[in-house]
Amino acid sequence: MASAAQAAIVVTYAGGDALRIAVRGHEMRSDQPVEDGGNDTAPTPTEIFVAGLGACVAFYAERFLRRNDLSTDGLRVECNHRWAENPHRIGEIELLVEAPGLTDAKRAAFSRVIDHCTIHNTLRQPPAVRMVVSSSQAARYRGACDLIGAEPPR
């Protein structure tokens, strides 16, 4: 499933409520606030999710500005979210995009471009999510099969 351009993202337990997230040789962490039982050493997974949307919008924004010879100075995306229940989830995300270098003539085109960042498109048309649960014993067996180049039985 993963290719060189789409390397697997691996999340491992790091103690308490903390998790280590490995992505293409980079490492991030997540944790929970103290009031929720964590140590508040990193953003929560939900905050990382919302930040990913904000970063995606900011990326599309900076690319638009640079390609149109407009200043990226002061470009800022502020993300806020509200909860919904039954089931517990994010119910609304608001993004405030500040682009001081944007001209009135380019505002409509800029808005169209940032509105179609990859993560926003994904939220509009959600992917199928498939979870495969394995025990540590099955994972060790799968790892052994990987080492010798064999396919585990189905």
The CATH superfamily name of the largest domain is K homology (KH) domain
Q: Can you give the helix content as a percent range? A: 25-40%
Q: How does the major sheet shape up?
A: 3 strands, antiparallel
Radius of gyration (CA) equals 20 Å
- Provide the CATH architecture of the largest domain: 2-Layer Sandwich
Describe the structure.
The protein is α+β, with helices and mostly antiparallel strands and about 150 residues long. It has two domains: about 1-40; about 45-150, GMP Synthetase, Chain A, domain 3 (2-Layer Sandwich). Helices cover about 35% and strands about 25% of the residues. The protein is built from four helices and five strands. It has helices at about 45-65, 105-115, 120-125, 135-150; strands spanning about 10-15, 20-25, 25-30, 75-85, 90-100. The strands form two sheets. A three-stranded antiparallel sheet has the order 1-2-3, with no helix packed on it. Strands 4-5 form a two-stranded antiparallel sheet.
SSE topology:
Layout: E1 10-15, E2 18-23, E3 26-30, H1 45-67, E4 76-84, E5 89-98, H2 107-114, H3 118-124, H4 136-148
Antiparallel strand pairs: 1-2, 2-3, 4-5
